[in-house]
């Protein structure tokens, strides 16, 4: 009875749920086509408030078969990075986020949500090692990246290098001009 009571009371307050249980809830959602979105959203939102204990799991999500899991991993790593909670894995994580920005789109444009989350995470982390990956998105002629993803990348680069690209009528063109004129190769 105590085990049942504890489980049911904790399901109403995600703050009292162990991190591994929150992670399991997210995994079940991605593994099941009819997963419980409300439970997933509650678990995911609570994980966004957790600390470095979710880092390695989030890092593994960057290569998950489901784009929504990749998107979630990138977002959560950006949250951790903005709080300085990536520790000694920051460069490896930046490289993996960079790889996600270059991942070919396999199914549909929804996969770009993961790419855009990776771009935003690179900006939030703020490590200079991420700049070349963002520049690659801006300079890409990939039909899937042209448009929203490049706009997102121009905003990220603007924050990382303190340039006012987003004040330009064409932020992507302004970022491209800066890259070709000032970027050290």
For the biggest sheet, the summary is: none
- Cα(first) to Cα(last) distance is 65 Å
- Quaternary organization: single chain
Compute the CA-based radius of gyration.
Answer: 18 Å
Task: Name the beta content range.
Answer: under 5%
- The succession of helices and strands, N to C, reads HHHHHHHHHH
Strands, count: 0
Description:
With about 180 residues, this protein is mainly alpha-helical. It has a domain at about 50-130. Helices cover about 65% and strands about 0% of the residues. It has ten helices and no strands. It has helices at about 1-10, 20-30, 35-45, 55-60, 65-80, 90-100, 110-125, 130-140, 150-160, 170-180. Helix 2 packs across helix 3 (about 35-45) and helix 5 (about 65-80) runs parallel beside helix 7 (about 110-125). The radius of gyration is 18 Å and the shape is globular. Residues about 1-10 have low confidence and may be disordered.
Task: Record keyword descriptors for this entry.
single chain; 185 residues; mainly alpha; 10 helices; 0% strand; disordered N terminus
Sum this structure up briefly.
The chain has helices spanning 2-10, 19-31, 37-47, 55-61, 67-82, 90-101, 112-125, 131-139, 148-161, 171-182. By secondary structure, the chain is mainly alpha-helical. The protein has a domain at 51-129.
Helix-strand blueprint:
Blueprint: H1 2-10, H2 19-31, H3 37-47, H4 55-61, H5 67-82, H6 90-101, H7 112-125, H8 131-139, H9 148-161, H10 171-182
Helix pairs in contact: 2-3, 4-5, 5-6, 5-7, 6-7, 6-8, 7-9, 8-9, 9-10
